[in-house]
Amino acid sequence: MHFDDRLATVLRLRATGERAAKTQFRQLIDLLGERPQAGDRALKAAAYLRLIALGEMIPAKTRAAIVGESGWRFRNPELVKWFGEAHPHVAAAALYRAQLRGGEWAELIPKLPIRARGFLRHRRDLPREAVEVLDRLGVSDRALPEPEPLELMEELAPPTERPRPEIEDTQPATEESAPPAAHEPRSAPGKDDVRSLVERIEGFRRARASGAAPPASDAEAPRLPMGDEDRGEPGPLEHFIFSADSRGRVDWAEGSTAPMIVGTDLKTLGSSALVDAISRRQPLSNLRIALRGAPRIAGEWILDATPRFTRNEGRFFGYVGRLRRVAAEVADGREAAADRLRQLLHELRTPVNAMQGYAEIIQQQMIGPVPHEYRSIAATIAGDSAHILAGFDELDRLAKLEAGVLELEAGHCDFAAIARRQVMQLQTVLSPRVARFDAHLGDASAPLALDQSEAEMLAWRLLATIAGATAAGETIRLDLDTAGDQIEFATTLPATLREAEDVFSVETRPSTGALSAGIFGAGFSLRLARAEARSSGGELLRDGDRLVLSLPLLTAAETAPAPENAAG
Question: Annotated region Disordered: where (predicted)?
Answer without folding.
Answer: 144-234
